[in-house]
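SAMPLE LOG
Freezer: B-3
Tube label: C17
Construct: single chain, 317 aa
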Amino acid sequence: MIIDNRMRKLLVSLREHVSTDFHPGLYGTVAVFLAVTIAANYRFDFEDSVIDAYRGREIRMLWYFLLYGVAYYFTVLAQAWFGQVGTALRQRRFWLLSLAGMGMLAVDGGFYYHRWVADRLFAAEVQPYAVKCLGQLNSLLTILLPCALLYRWSGHRPESFYGLTTRGVNLRPYAGMLLGMVPLVAWASFQPDFLLTYPSYQPTAADPYLATPPWVNALGFELAYGWDFVATELLFRGLLVIGLAQVLGNRAVLPMTVTYAFLHFGKPLGETIGSVFGGYILGVIALYSRNIWGGVALHLGVAWLMELAAFLQLPFR
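STRUCTURE (predicted):
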C-alpha cells in the first residue's frame, strides 16, 4: 500500500499539472514543431552529419548552442504567444538561468579536450578506453561546476541545489516503474538501430594491456556512464525545471521537454520519441517533489537496463 499510495501521488501530480498547463493551441504547436524537427533531423541526419562534422573544433559548441536554443526559446515564445508566461521574458533571472543552461549544453556537447588529456597521460593502448571514460566524466566540468557557481552567485536560490537533495526522498515508487520498462527495453533490444547504438561500451586494447578482466574495464566505463545521467538530471530537471520554476512556475516543464528531445538527436528514433514523454514526466516529478532523485533513479535504471539488454544480445549477433 505504501508504494501504491506514493505512486498514486505521482499520478495525481501529473494529472494536476496537465490540467493547469495544457492549452490545445500551445500543445498542438509544440507537437507540430517536434514532429517537423524530429522528422527533418532523421531525414537529413543533421546532428550526426552536420554538427558532428565539426568534432574537435570549438565551432561545434556554437552549433549545439543554436540547436538547443531553437528548441528552448521556440517553446517559450509559443508559451508567451498563448499568454502563459506573462512577464517572465522581461526578467533578468530568466535569461541568466536559461542562457546558462543552453551554454552548458553547448559546451558539454562540443567538449573534446578530454582527448588531449588522454593523449598525454595514457599509453596508446589505453587511450581509446580513457577517452570513453573521460568523455562521460566531462560533465563534472561542463555541468556540475557551472551549476555550482551559478547556484552560489546568482541569488534567489531554490531551497536546494537544483534538486540535488536527499530531504524527503523515497525511491521505492520508482522500482515499479523500472519493472514496467523491462518488457519495452527487451523489445527494443531486438531492433536494428538499437543494436547499432548499444552497448555504449566496446572492448578496447586496454583489456590485454592492463591485464585486467574485461568486465572490470566495462564496469569502470558503466560507472562513468552512469554519472553522466546524474549530470543530465541536474541540468534538465534541476536547473531548467526547479531553478526556472522560480520565474516560469509550472510552465518550466514544457521548454525543458522539447530541449531534452533535441538532446536525443543522433540516438535511435524510438528513443528520441520516447524522450518527449519521459522528459515531460520526469520534469513534472521534479517540479512537484523539488528533487531530482526520482528522475536519476528512472533515467539511470533505464540506461543500465538498455546496456544490459545489449550485452545479453552480443552472443547472438
